Automatic annotation (TrEMBL):
It is found in: Cytoplasm; Nucleus. This is Uridylate kinase. GO terms for cellular component: cytoplasm; nucleus. It catalyses: UMP + ATP = UDP + ADP. Residues 36-66 are annotated as: NMPbind. The lineage of its organism: Eukaryota, Fungi, Fungi incertae sedis, Zoopagomycota, Kickxellomycotina. Residues 129-139 are annotated as: LID. The gene is URA6. The chain holds residues 131 to 323 of 341 of the full protein. Belongs to the adenylate kinase family. UMP-CMP kinase subfamily. It comes from Coemansia guatemalensis.
C-alpha cells in the first residue's frame, strides 16, 4: 500500500475545538476521507472481540493517550480500507511527540497541519453543551479537565513542533460554525492547488 503517495493533513486542536465539525465539511468539499482517531478508538472499544475494549474505555474516560501502537494500527487499517483515495484528514492525532514520530516511521509524513485555536473557556462551554446529548463518557467536567491537562502537557507541544517546521495553518474557532469553516475551507483550497 503506497502510503508515501498519499496526501495526509492532520487536524489538531484542543478537546471541543471543532476538529470533527470542520473535518466533516472538508470531506464534502474536497473529497477527503476523514479518519478521527477518537472515533476509531471508540468503535474499537465497542467491538465485542476486541482485546483492547477495557483499556480504551479507561484511557478515554481519564483523558489519557492510548498507547500509539493501537491507534496507529487502527489508522493504517482505515487508510487501507480506501485504496483509491489519495487524500486523508486525520483528526485528533498525533497527540504527543512519540506518536508523531511513530506515524512518520510506520505510515508517512503529513503534508500540513490544520490547527483549530480555541480558548479553554469556549471549549469547555461547547463540550458541556454537547455532553447533554453526546453519550460520550468523557463529556463530563471531571474528564474534560483531564483532557485539557493532557492537551496542554502533551498535545500542544506537537502543534508547536509542526509550527517550527512551517507546517501549521491556524484557524481561529471564534465565530459561528459557518464563519470558522469558511477560513478552514479557503486555506485548504489554497493548500491543494
Ligand atoms: N461546535 C463546533 N464548532 C462550533 C462553533 N464554531 N460554534 C459553536 N459551536 C461549535 O465540536 C465540539 C462541539 O462544539 C460540538 O457540539 C459542535 O457542534 C460544537 P467538535 O467538532 O466535535 O470538536 P472536536 O475538536 O472534534 O472535539 P472532540 O471532543 O472530538 O475532541 P477530542 O480531541 O477531545 O476528542 P477525540 O475524539 O479526538 O479523542 C477522545 C479521546 O480519545 C482522547 O481524550 C484520548 O483519550 C483518546 N485518543 C487517544 O488516546 N489517541 C488518539 O490519537 C486520539 C484520541
Ligand atoms: Mg472530534
Amino acid at each position: 500500500f503506497p502510503f508515501a503517495q498519499k496526501t495526509v493533513v492532520f487536524v489538531l486542536g484542543g478537546p471541543g475545538s471543532g476538529k470533527g465539525t470542520n473535518s466533516e465539511k472538508l470531506v464534502k468539499d474536497f473529497g477527503f476521507v476523514h479518519l478521527s482517531a477518537g472515533d476509531l478508538l471508540r468503535a474499537e472499544q465497542q467491538r465485542s472481540e476486541s482485546q483492547y475494549g477495557e483499556l480504551i474505555a479507561h484511557y478515554i474516560r481519564e483523558g489519557l493517550i492510548v498507547p500509539h501502537e493501537i491507534t496507529i494500527g487502527l489508522l493504517r487499517n482505515a487508510m487501507m480500507d480506501h485504496p483509491d483515495c489519495d487524500r486523508f484528514l486525520i483528526d485528533g492525532f498525533p497527540r504527543n511527540i512519540v506518536q508523531a514520530k511513530a506515524f512518520e516511521d510506520m505510515v508517512c509524513k503529513a503534508k500540513q497541519v490544520l490547527f483549530f485555536e480555541c480558548p479553554e473557556a469556549t471549549m469547555l462551554e461547547r463540550l458541556l453543551d454537547r455532553g447533554k446529548t453526546s453519550g460520550r463518557t468523557d463529556d463530563n467536567i471531571e474528564s474534560i479537565k483531564k483532557r485539557f491537562r493532557t492537551y496542554v502537557n502533551d498535545s500542544k507541544p506537537v502543534i508547536d513542533e509542526y509550527a517550527r517546521e512551517g507546517k501549521v495553518i491556524t484557524v481561529s474557532c471564534k465565530g459561528t460554525v459557518d464563519e470558522v469553516y469558511k477560513v478552514a475551507h479557503d486555506n485548504v483550497a489554497a493548500l491543494l492547488q
